[in-house]
Structures
1.
Amino acid sequence: MKRISPVVNIGTVQIGGGLPPVLQSMTSTDTRDVKKTVAEIQALHTAGAEIVRLAIPDEAAAEAAVKICQQVDPVPVVGDFHFGGAEILKAVPKCAEALAKFRINPGNSTDKHFTDFLKRAKKLKKPVRIGVNAGSVSPEILADSRSLVQAVLRTVELSVLTANSLNFPADQLVLSAKLSSVPETIAVYRSLAQNFPYALHLGLTEAGSGLSGEIASTTAMGTLLAEGIGETFRISLTPKPGKSRTREVDVGKQILQALELRNFAPRIISCPGCGRTQSDQFQRLADEISGRVEKAFPRWQKKFPGVETLKIAVMGCVVNGPGEARSADIGLSLPGGGEASAIVFVRGKKVADLTGENLTGEFWEILETFVAEHFSK
Ligand code: SF4
């Protein structure tokens, strides 16, 4: 049974309460550079990040955050505080008001700082993520623990005890505990989900870059989300030099879509092809349909609500092709030999036998008609 946490309001976005997981990202710009930070938040939001976090290391960044929040409104902006967060919030009250949520790392705060920070957030009715990170667990807790996982969990437990001693509202509390190991991350979040009734922010910290970072993040987040654990999450990838940070948002969306927790774009189901496909027509067809769908999607989205749930199958031969094509909203299967013809199914019914040079074009026409008929406002 899915675990249900309290609903937490983060500006215009809600997490928890059984809602589908919400995707977050974080800026990499110097927060004091308002223009660049606004541009990055807008790019991340356009890519699909529903909440964006920025670092607030000092008062100058806090002053800048006030302007940033105004300029990106209504995107919820989270302030990331380490060390003297309570003092910064006190010195720049407008920043505290403007931010949708605060994040504090107890490992980088004295007990007094941490308590003052929670008191201030409670007074302002702002949600707080207590974000423990394996890299900043106190050496004393580490020395007293059997493992890093145990030290991280103990740090969360002590932080929650502090929050409870202040009667910090459950619907303003979010927990995270990030490690860089996939098995340890999974173990920690399973334990958090079992032992704490609060919204959880998932993350694999320092996941790395490129394919290995994406696979590590997908394995950790995918496992937990599939178990119903996690109200919100961020994919932490090191961008390639000069490349956009929005890649991490794309990966997060793909995880949610693959788990069928959220839909962001039509899904193309295509088989890998094998020795039964006697030419590369199948690969060209799958590639062309994917490209056309990607291009048409922004246009479809404006006119055809719900089109992101569309499932299209492009299959290589009669072994699995007709079955998959029947199960999709619209599907096509090549014969697997000769490959100058294809059968087309719409919602399980065979609607056409296509042959000849313009097979792709004819399939596309059927697809466009299907979209217009089934997803009209
Ligand atoms: S559907 Fe046919 S072509 Fe595609 S992988 Fe299966 S057997 Fe091979």
2.
Amino acid sequence: MPVEGICWINNEIVRLEDARISVMDHGLLYGDGIFEGIRFYNNKAFLLEPHLERLVASAKALALELPQGIPELSTTLQSVIKEYKNHHGYIRLIITRGKGPLGINPALCKTPELIIIASPLNMSDEQAQKKGIRTIIASTRRIPADCLDPRIKSLNYLNAILARIEANNAGVEEALMLNQQGYITEGTVDNIFIVNNGELYTTPSIDGSLAGITRDLILNLANDSGINTHVKSLAAYDIYAADECFLTGTGAELIPVNEVDGRKYSDCPGNIFKQLKNQYQNSLIQRQ
Ligand SMILES: Cc1ncc(COP(=O)(O)O)c(C=O)c1O
């Protein structure tokens, strides 16, 4: 079955199923590269600026040269959105180290590869929005931040994939991951929030989570509406004993969690979740 979507690669836009990269690309061989997932609505990229800022920071951290400067990259991205037949969708912007000989040496890869995919927007599961998802805390620990900084949005997801395999085997939808000290980091592809006594908590990147753009938006929306917010280390106990729990991400948007390791939340989706979800949707409309 053809995969729906288009792709900007090698300076042209092609059908997704016709897009090709070299088998000698170090993104494929060694996961040497970075990416951003960006939603667009009514042909306009949502929160483009912070996504591009994070891309630049990830590239700097990996000493990876951006194939295009930011103004040019924004123009290329807009041209992909314009070319795509749907007005709403999802952009996957990938920059790999490019082609090189076998062996990890990035210095031997002369030209980074830019790939921009536009594909359908996966609407979040209606059942999940109504009833929440079940999760476990995985036994696979997050790679320590001093080994691979979680703020680098890299092409390496094996650590998260190991945790997702645990979730699959346990018959639940998502896994939460602890760091080496036993503090909660995040889900496999999303940030975590809990609510306690009407106050909102999420985990700091230094504990092992991506500096999520949706997370930042949610913190700002909560502050705007007078909800006290805390970015602090959380133990499994805090998650089990919380009043509400939910996950955030560009793909996921906001997903309520109804269960962690068999401990159920009586309030799911909870009131704070519902309020923030409303504010999130309003901010989508306002930014159009
Ligand atoms: C590991 C991880 N954490 C959190 C997120 C959520 O980040 P954002 O809200 O910027 O999409 C993602 C999204 O891809 C992710 O891969």
3.
Amino acid sequence: MPKKKIFAIPNVPTPNQPVLFNEDVCTGCNLCVETCQIDVFIPHPQKGKPPIILHPEECWYGGCCVNDCPVPGAIQFNWPLALRGYWKNKETGKVHQI
Ligand code: SF4
Ligand code: SF4
């Protein structure tokens, strides 16, 4: 059977990034790809590289991908500004972001 080439291009009109990968830490195990029920990611064609964010606008920010990643620091949320929470420590005055 002849091999087929499949071309996948990340969404150009809405290039937001619901999560950020740390290329130095991510092992490219693709567990986050399997975990995401919305199929936001696809595996990277190069083994060992972080997945590709193909459908960022579909992310629900539920966090399964971040919570299930077995490698600390490999993936983190990148909340849109409107969804970010802030709180201020009354004693120090320092503003923290969730
Ligand atoms: S972010 Fe975590 S779960 Fe996803 S490929 Fe990298 S190491 Fe695996
Ligand atoms: S937060 Fe949820 S929907 Fe968004 S990429 Fe992670 S698993 Fe998929």
4.
Amino acid sequence: MKTYRIQRIKGGMKFTCTICGHSVSTLDFDARVGNLRTQAATTINAHSTQMHHAPMIISPSDSQQRTWR
Ligand SMILES: [Zn+2]
């Protein structure tokens, strides 16, 4: 299950966290370091893992009564 979605933006792509709306774009990275899309995906995946302990499936009815720790 993906925890982010990808949108095309002008000059690149934008990766948005589906849980909290945090986003990064390929414009934030340096193409000389490596593939922009890979860097952005890695960053948003790391965000999900650190901030939301993803990957996990969150059901809307469940999320309010539980603490994710
Ligand atoms: Zn998030």
